[in-house]
Every structure is written in C-alpha cells, then in structure tokens.
Amino acid sequence: MATLRSALRGEDPAGVRGLDPALVDEVIALAESHSVTALLYGRLGSADDPRCVRARRLVADRALTCARQLYRLTFFSADLVRSLSDAGVESVLLKGSGVAALYPVPEYRKSGDVDLLLADPSRVGLACEALRRCGLTVVGEQDAHHHVSMRSPQGIEVELHVAITEDFDSDGLNRVVARCQAEAVRHVRAVRLLGCELPVLEDAYQALSLLLHMLQHFLRAGFGLKLLCDWVEFWARDVDPEQVDAYLRLVDACGLEGFSRVVTSACVRRLGLEESTAVVMLEGGRPLDERLVDDFLREVFDAGEFGHSSSERMVALRGSSLVDVAREFHHQTRLNFPRACRCPVAWPVLWAATLARFLRNNRRVRGTTTGDVIAEARRRGDLVRRLGLFGDGAEGQLK
Amino acid sequence: MRVATDRFELRRAAGKALLVGLDAPRFTAHPVFELNDTGAYLWERLAHGDEPDAAAEGYARVFGVGADCARKDLAGFLDSMRSIGAVRR
Predict the structure, then answer these.
(1) Which residues, other chains included, contact A73 with Cβ-Cβ below 8 Å and sequence gap of 6+?
(2) What is the pTM of this model?
(3) Overall fold of domain B2-88
(4) pLDDT single digits (tens) A15-68
C-alpha cells in the first residue's frame, strides 16, 4: 500500500526506500489482483536481487500493455462517440480514458472496455443500430438491464448505459439517482487526450458517478484498489470549489455523504490523498470511527478488482439476518426481471426462477456452494450495516 | 521542415518513447512506433519548433557525437519519419 501511495502522490522514486526483496513477490501478487501493477512502474527500487529484477520487468511489461490499451481504447471511444453523434445520439464517456486522463501518466491506469452513458436513454435502439453499422454486435447474453453490451470485431466490449448504475435496493435512492442522471447529461465537458475530444461529465457529476460505481460494486461482489486510486487522482487535482459544493449537494440528496466520507477518509489514511485537499468532504456529520474506515479498507483490499478474489463473493446484504437474505433475494429478482416484477402476482414464479438461476450459477459458474455465498453475503452485510448505508447505522443513510 | 505534431504525439510510458498516430480512419488501428532515445530527442526538439540545424547541434552536444554524425543521424531520422508521414515541409 505504501508503494502504491508513493506512486499516487508522485513522490520521487529515488526517495522511496527500496522495497524489501522478500516482500516483492507478495506486493506484485496483490497489485495484479487489483489491476494496479502498472502504477508501480519505477517504484520498486533498484535492488539487484533477482526477485526485484523480475518484478520490475513484469511491471514494465504491464505498463507497456496498459499504455497500448489506453491508446486503443481512447481512439475507439472517440470513434464511438462520433458515430453515435452522427446518428443523432449524444453520449458521455464514463470511466475508461476519461478517468485515465486524470492520472499523471494516464497510460498506467488499466482499462478494459468502454462505457458510454446515453444522454437520452430512449435512443438506445438507435444507438445499437448505429454501432451495428460500424461492425459491432450485441452480446448474446446481457447480464444487466442498465446497459446494453456490444462487442467490436476486435473483442472490445462496449456498454451503452441507459442508467449510470443498476438499481439499488432503495427506491428512494434510485429516484434521486435518476434525477441526478438527467441533470448530469446537461453538464458535460470535453477532456482532450491523444488529440481526441472525449465528452465526460463535469466534475461534480463525474465524482458522483465514480461514487455510485463504487457503491454498486461494493454492494455486489466488492471493488478493489483501482477505484480508490481513481478517487485519489480525481480529488488530487485542483477541483473548482463550486464543483466540490455541487458534488456535496448531490451526495447529500442521494443520502451518500457517509459513504463518501468513508471512501475519502480511506484514501486520506492509506493512499496519499492530502487531507487538506479532502477537508471539505470530510467536514460535518458525526466523527468517523477509524475502525470503520480500516474495516472498509480491509474489505476493499480483500476483494481484489471487482470482488474477483473469491468465488463466494456475490453480494453484500443490508445486514446479517435472514430478513436481509430474503430482502436481497427479492432485490435480485427485481434486477433479473425488472418488467415482470411490476406485477406482484408473478413474484412466486419469478422468485423460483431467480432461485434456480442462483443455485445453478453457484455450482456451475462460481464453483462454490450456495451456503458459502450466503455466509459471505451475511458477513459483508455487517459492514454495510455499520456504514449505515440503509439507514440502520451512524452515517450515509440511503433514502 | 516540421514534424507533424497534428498527426503524431510522442508519449512516454514504461521507459519507452512511443510515437502514437493520431490520424486514422474510424475504427482502424492507430500506429504506435517506438523511438529510441536519440529519435525521441530529435522529435522533441523539432516538435518544439527548432530548425533541423539547431536540433542537430543539440543532438551532437547531448549525445557526444561529432557534427557530421549528428547531421547524418538527423537525416536518417527524418527519412524514417517521412516514411510514416510524420514530417511536413
């Protein structure tokens, strides 16, 4: 973590004490599991120990691969945006090259796909048709309802978002997020990278989008250090105070100020975000419990990128009781069958279908047991409860 | 003679100097060329607006080569750049 912090703070690598060669392999393994290996370029000291030499070579390879991928995705993103615009569909780049551009060396931020938010979600059919004409195909099995996945002939996945995130298990939050999204697409700015003008959300809305993305994954299988690094780099810039205020108002409207404070505090404590930079976001509210921040950080650390560290990770419950299990089950049913769920008479059938899919996927896709998945969800639910995300705890009450 | 900075951008990452082509038809691959240290130096000098003679002088000084060698290397560099469309008169 110290090595990553020094990279994010832009500290002089010569001034960083050389990493203990005995730890190098462990550091690399952790970095790989969080997809932040490239960020360690130049940060592993100059020791001649073969482990260090091997590690530096691996990091250099990763960094070069990330660089080439950034170039590919940046030009591809710009081409997608232009093609959609030609077809009368305006879009905004979420994450990807738009976030990489925040980094001192954008090339070191790993990206894998392209996420575009459609300014007018009702035009998603038109958008798909426009991109089909450019050679992309709709992915056969769609795993979410808040975006349509398409794939380029070169295998790059493109997600056309009709919503910034999937629905949360909070109708109030979903309504507020929908309103924020409608506002957000009217607050777009251009980021210039590699001669391309990339449309991204203005800072307040981009920050909200990053936070919501973290929350979505936190409540699913988890998220790793890469998203916290994005948060550090976002706020390490000189963000216009008006944008900071706007962000705080948005977060307050969503009931996410507690989550925002915990995330920010974790970045201040461990990832080099200057406290003076983040002070506005940490003010107000009840004092943060340091153990809570540490436990949150441990959860992020353990998760790996998008919770891929273990097959038992699927969701985090609202708490650890059986009621919370049932509640989450119903929420998953609503996510799987958003339209059919509007009819309560159909719920028993839909629950049965969701259960069948859940049991099958645990066995065939995750290679684990249903009992282990539920146990993990309940364990993580304790942290969700302590974070007060659903109005049960001290902070960040979702409405 | 100028390098075409509207068509190529020099990026530095992972210890490499990468010349990235900015201009390509939609949805086609953009070329990426790896420059060595001398090539990267000459590109940066020319991109900065230096005349070729000045770039060659600087090159000779920085890399500790004679004036003739510097001019020859510059000519070779410009030939390479011309072949990929990275030079304009």
Answers:
(1) A96, A97, A111, A113, A114, A156
(2) 0.91
(3) Arc Repressor Mutant, subunit A (1.10.10)
(4) 345 667 778 888 899 999 999 999 999 887 677 788 888 888 999 999 999 999
